[in-house]
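Colleagues,

Please find the record for the two-part complex below.
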Amino acid sequence: MKEFEKAGIITIFKELITDFQVMVKDVEPYLHGAALDPEGVKQHLDDLLDKMTVLNEKISLTHDLVKGVISSIHASRSELKQTVDGLIQQTGDQLKKITATTEDATHKILDVASKLDEDQNVIISKLKEIVKADHSDEVRKVIDEIQEMVYNNQNAAFDIIQFLQFQDITAQQIAGAYSLLADTEKTLVYVLHLMKEFDFGGNNPADLLPKIDKNAFNADAVFGDKGDIQHVIDDLFLTGDTNQKIPEDKQRQSDIASSSNSNANNDDDFDIDALFNN
Amino acid sequence: MEELKFLIVDDSPTMRKIVFNTLKRLGYNEIEEAEHGAEGLEKLRATPGVNFIVTDWNMPVMDGLEFVKNIRATQEFAKIPILMVTTRSVKDDIIEAMKAGVNNYVVKPFTPEVLKAKIDLILSK
């Protein structure tokens, strides 16, 4: 396989343009009246012939590649249309349902845990009443034990309340996933628009896309112990020393962050409204 | 000592409930809530006496950072202590929040002990 055959279509196009420019440059002196040296001209024509042969191969390869691209676009156009028309939207709706259902369930658990917490307070105050009325050491000992158990139950109920923070964090992760899907949809709509294959009616296709407020969530939120990070933040606020190193909050998440940030950066260059309005 | 009146600003009803419960457990009973920064500012104007704010960062309409900047730019509220409670733990974010004027910063998920320690620390200054 020749070196250029390994290249992609865009690279080959670039090479073709460069090759043509070089050939024009080679011929230019003679067009401007440079003296003709028979040996030099022969050498030049030989070189030119070699270049033309390679160029011909490149053009033929480019033709095949373009044909391939066109046929794959045609093969995938209905899938693309279907995806943009409904699948991504359905997935987004499903993700929202998951968030709503989880939130609802979490609130029910929160209410039960809060009620448990309050009930323990009632039990404790009733136990204190009993202690006042009965001074038997044996009874008091049993009451103390019960009180200890009630405090433990109360702490457990409160722990449950704290653990329910997972819901907010997973909701943010889900919002991040939905945002990625919306970005994918944006790209697909852009491709469809470029292909001019589909009728978007009187609508600006950009208006059909979901509006995502990326400030409303942190896709890199992680549910886990934040003790090590919190300690450094404490020092940072205490000393004001901003040179302190803050531990990474899970490398995997950081990797996801950089990839989603690069998507966000692409958004800056990719002004879909401007594209559609042109 | 002046009774503390809290304003919790968080778009997640779950988080508002959890912070609310935690503050109650710490003995604070006067607690207002708002869903985002813009509603937080409205609440501050409509509810006199709020003297401690616990705010999230990522919120729709007006995020926590904008909210903090708005508060610090409003003479009437500029001195209210602000504790930011957020999932954002990247150093640049923390420094940005610091520069915007938060008095301290807690990373979610938080523990009641950490929340209490931060409130006490802010109040001691």
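The helical segments of chain A are 9-31, 38-133, 137-163, 166-195, 205-208, 227-239, 251-269, 272-277.

Comments are welcome before we finalize the supplementary table.
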